[in-house]
């Protein structure tokens, strides 16, 4: 298999094995906390935030041991820039109502926290039975508003990351690992 990214100016930060371990651990924690849903046969609603969380969510649900339902929302965040606009807008809404359902918002990465803060407030207004957050990555240094992350993969440094769903202008979402963009001069020398 030709791994095109080997020629790209990026450096691996979290390898695919480590991602696999985090996904399994998170799926285990969530499955244990919602184990009672198995008896009620009521699926846990996993809401992936498009597009970044699509890869993570699809891996996560396959490691879970309780029934889940997948739904998606798309919100505007960064556009073509690598800094937050601070404006959150719903571009695509859930396909089904969540009233009285147990819901987990699934995010790829929490940066300023603005997206999650808005989504939590907004979805809470639809009166779910419960509402929690699962994020693969957390950049705590960049936080502008406090948000609780109930299930977290790991913290990452304040660098722009790509891969495993994360993009730079729609590029690199398909990488199996999480990588950092190399800036000019990095990686040179002895
Ligand atoms: P927040 O509202 O600033 O927390 O932004 C969260 C969203 O910004 C995430 O869902 C990502 O789509 C995007 N984002 C934040 N940091 C990165 C990054 O390092 N690489 C790619 N996308 C990012
Ligand atoms: Mg994005």
Task: List the SSEs and their pairings.
Blueprint: E1 10-14, H1 16-33, H2 37-40, E2 44-50, H3 54-63, E3 68-76, E4 89-92, E5 102-110, H4 114-124, E6 130-138, E7 151-155, E8 161-162, E9 178-181
Parallel strand pairs: 2-3, 2-5, 5-6, 6-7
Antiparallel strand pairs: 1-9, 3-4, 8-9
Helix pairs in contact: 1-3
The structure holds inosinic acid and magnesium ion.
Inosinic acid binds next to strand 5 and helix 4.
Protein architecture, described:
This protein has 190 residues and is an alpha/beta fold. It has one domain (17-34, 42-157): Rossmann fold, CATH 3.40.50. It has four helices and nine strands. It has helices at 16-33, 37-40, 54-63, 114-124; strands at residues 10-14, 44-50, 68-76, 89-92, 102-110, 130-138, 151-155, 161-162, 178-181. A six-stranded mixed beta sheet has the order 4-3-2-5-6-7, sandwiched between helices. It has a three-stranded antiparallel beta sheet with strand order 1-9-8. Helix 4 (114-124) links the parallel strand 5 (102-110) and strand 6. Helix 1 (16-33) crosses helix 3. The longest helix is centred in the first third of the chain and has 18 residues, at 16-33. The two termini are 30 Å apart. The model has no long low-confidence stretch (mean pLDDT 91). Magnesium ion binds at residues 52, 77-78, 167.
Main sheet: which strands, in order across? Answer: 4-3-2-5-6-7
Please give the alpha-carbon distance between the first and last residues: 30 Å
Strand count: 9
Taking the sheet with the most strands, its summary is:
6 strands, mixed
Backbone shape? globular
Treating each run of at least 4 consecutive H or I residues as one helix, how many helices? 4
Determine the fraction of residues in helical runs and give it as a percent range. 10-25%
Residues in β-strands, percent: 25-35%
Question: CATH class, please?
Answer: Alpha Beta
**Secondary-structure element pattern, one letter each:** EHHEHEEEHEEEE
